Amino acid sequence: MTNQYRVLPGPEHFLPPAAASMGIRLPNPGEAHIHGVIVPEEQALEEAARQFLMAKVPTIFPGPLVLWAWNEKAAKKATAIRHLYETIKECVTPQQQAMLIPMPDYRPKYPKINPEVEINPNHPNLTIWHNKIDCCMFVGVHCHQANLSLKIIRGGTSCYTIAMCAQAGHEDAMLSFRDASAEKIMRLAEWVRKLKGTVKVSQVVSKSGASN
Amino acid sequence: METTSVIGTKNKKGQVYTDPRVMMNEAPRTPSFFTGSEVIKEAVRRASVDVMIAYPITPQSEAAALIGELFAEGYIGDYFRGESEFAVMSECAGAAFGGARVFTTTAGPGTMRAMENFPMWAGARLPIQCIVTCRGINSPLSIQPDTIEISYLMQTGMLVWHAETAQDFYDWIMKGYMVSEEPDVHLPLALCCDGFFVTHTKDVVNLTPADMCLPPYDPYRSPVPCMDMECPPVRMMRDPFVMKSNYISYATHASWQQEVWAAIERSRKHTIAWLDGLIETENADADVLIVSSGTAVSQGREAIRLLADEGIRVGLVKIKTLRPWPGEEIREATKNAKYIIVPEFNVVGWMAREIKASIPNSDRVIAGPHVCGGMTMPPEIIVEQIKHALGIRSAALAGRGS
Q1: Does the distance separating the beta carbons of A1 and B252 come in below 8 Å?
Q2: Which of A80, B3, B132, B277 could, after both became Cys, cross-link B192 (CB 3.0–4.6 A)?
Q3: Is the CB of residue B7 less than 8 Å from the CB of residue B215?
Q4: Domain A47-195 has CATH 3.40.718.10
Q5: Is residue A109 over pLDDT 90?
Q6: Taking the model in full, what pTM does it have?
Q7: What is the pLDDT of residue B182?
Q8: Quick check: A154 contacting B, CB < 8 Å?
Q9: Which CATH class is domain B8-221?
Q10: Is-contact B56 B81, C-beta < 8 A?
Q11: How confident is the model over B286-298, as a mean pLDDT?
Q12: B58 has pLDDT over 90
């Protein structure tokens, strides 16, 4: 069966399908996927860096698995994520606004969430809409909760989603890595630095700014 | 703790935690003559199970009681009896939420009584393994084999596999944990067999060494937090997407359900690798194919032999997994078949319905023969069905004749 489905920025549908149910398969070790197409990991690192540099509001969403130093690897990853954020901030123009917004837990907080300071997997679109985020990366979020977020974001916003997954990756992201490590995150930061000044900021504006 | 870090070390019983691929595919096998229930016990002995919860009333399988012996011998972390099948499955959930590798068994009315728990397990992404030794479910009571309960399990969000033989059962118990505990899958597995036919008959089963066992479950690879009482899926009733009526609440719940079924899709890759495909075929280029699962496949094999003696060539498609459903594989395997015969041990013919929904020209599917309520399925009635399809006259097996 030829798979025609591609995982693209939305808004896709009132209730978009899970990409896995549309035939999108997860990458094997050493690979990643872009829009559902399996690619070498290095190609995806370059593309993710490009997407960050193109975005008006490139944002990292760190989840509980990296927000708490529950083991040595988590602490190292958190340091790498901070480094990536600082690198993006350094490499974008003054018109762009890099953000780092945590997903501290998974308790539904609607309607009380403060979308400026946190994101929640049950209604992640609120944070995307409020901050006009047009490119984001999830890291350190439990896989089930990350998939919920990624699908809801694809359904209702035009945000470009990236997953830096420590396990097998996410079909519901537009670009997904697997087996995330501090080293891999640092390599992404290197790509951001390498591409600095070579990428034009996106001119696409949807109905309500970065997303609708 | 990372699972790989314990490979080569010993557990408290002196079993060596072994790379599962080495254990299942390369380790020497010893032929042994066991009942299906005894085979379950031997698989569990090697599966590093933390908790087994039993409701051992069912006469369908002695497995729950036999695993109690394993606990007494020290092979299982904890073992206790629930006050009903519903309680057992709820307690299994509690143990799995806490990060344990959990095993249980059920059958027939017990499956139905526990049914509320199965979609809950799937929604909570708990990789519990439940052996279902299928039997009749309706009144009047029957303890005989009947596969109708599988049709209910297929809609729960669990992985559902259907073993044909005791050897399948032995291997798939261990392989089942390997698939269902993958972080991108992480779903419960209903490992079904036709009760009595598989559980109470003896067969030669090639066992892996008793001093080898699977590495323990690593709950830190779970796609949901382990036992977080404040976050879904644990804290259900105070959470807005359960209690509120608005688009966000509905959309979250819908996405949650979709994610469960997406996880079944992801299990394909792992299942194909472990079970060597979701189906198995024999003479797939024949004009007539028998397509089924469980012991209906065994009876189909015998019918094929009987027909071969008469010069009639018939092929076979054995379906190993029902969830994930091997739709593409069945389409490919049956593309040239003129007649697709689907023998089943249930009255409703759920397997034939699934196959019809998966292939073009579904009028090729002949839903039958059916038996149920514990009847056996003599291969001769499959032969008769095939001859009828081919327009060959044959005497009716049981009845007043034609």
Answers
A1: no
A2: B132
A3: yes
A4: no
A5: no
A6: 0.95
A7: 98
A8: no
A9: alpha beta
A10: yes
A11: 97
A12: no
